[in-house]
Amino acid sequence: VRVTLGGEALAGLAVTEPAASVRVLLPAPGAELVEPVWTGNEFRAPGGDRPRIRTLTPWRLDADALELDVGVVVHGDGLAAQWAVHAAPGSPVAVSGPGRGYRPDPGARRFVVAGDETAIPAIDQVLAALPAGAPAHVHVEVARPEARLAALERHAPARLTWHDAAPGAPAGATLVAALRDETVTEGTRVFAAGEAAAMQQIRRHLFEVRGVPRAHTWIRGYWKHGRAGSHD
Ligand SMILES: Cc1cc2nc3c(=O)[nH]c(=O)nc-3n(C[C@H](O)[C@H](O)[C@H](O)COP(=O)(O)OP(=O)(O)OC[C@H]3O[C@@H](n4cnc5c(N)ncnc54)[C@H](O)[C@@H]3O)c2cc1C
Question: For 81-137, what is each residue's pLDDT tens digit?
């Protein structure tokens, strides 16, 4: 679900890197928006509770119209998932950020880009920011066919492969397999984002089995199976 946030408070927000992040405070339905306090380490509600915050990708920012689009995966009872389904014009929400994103290496000869549905907004931006003409092989795992968003199809010369998650398989299993089969040469750079354990397997394979330098990769756990809250 794509949600457009808007309002004067977005004035001054600037997003300069692809795959950056914003933290979004999601009040319970009908509840007042109470801004949390930054402790220097994390956000806390004024009473000390953990606020209802999730991390999303600032997919499209229109600084003139003061609009920010986020794309939210509807995966079940998650706060963000349910918020996206039920949000209505005028629902209050607070945003902080942006957090740093990814800078594609302008000298790379080829890119391998991988992620699950949560990474589709980030991948859309990464592909748009690749050096002109740089070939890329893109792997996206989806749990449901309607997540095959056409937005990703418009990035020639990137070659896009959709992978359907097998029922019951761990999230990201097709991405782990796809990266095992990829050619990763000296000039290849790897971007990957998705379920944390799958990303850890990809790191282990690339670093320990293939000897790929860490600096040639940007691999992030975007969520963790069985744990609420963003995983960054
Ligand atoms: C830098 C960064 C950028 C991100 N960008 C986006 C984005 O643009 N869009 C987006 O949708 N997500 C994005 N995420 C991931 C998102 O923050 C998490 O998926 C988050 O857990 C969703 O919150 P929720 O309230 O819906 O679920 P939670 O309340 O956090 O989790 C509830 C349960 O659902 C599981 N779960 C969480 N996410 C998923 C999922 N996608 N599929 C299946 N099960 C899940 C959890 O393991 C937990 O068991 C990003 C994360 C990071 C770190």
Answer: 999 999 999 999 999 999 999 999 999 999 999 999 999 999 999 999 999 999 999
Q: Residues 199, 217: contact at Cβ < 8 Å?
A: no
For CA atoms 148, 218, 183, 105, give the dihedral sign: positive
The residues, ordered by sequence, that sit 6+ positions from 66 with a Cβ below 8 Å of its Cβ are 6, 7, 8, 10, 11
Ligand 1 within 6 A of CB of 80: yes
DSSP notation for 205-224: IIIIIS---GGGEEEEEEEB
Is residue 56 in contact with ligand 1, taking CB distance under 6 Å? yes
Whether the predicted model's global pTM rises above the 0.90 cut: yes
- In short, whether 100's Cβ falls inside 6 Å of ligand 1 is no
222 lines ligand 1 (CB under 6 A): yes
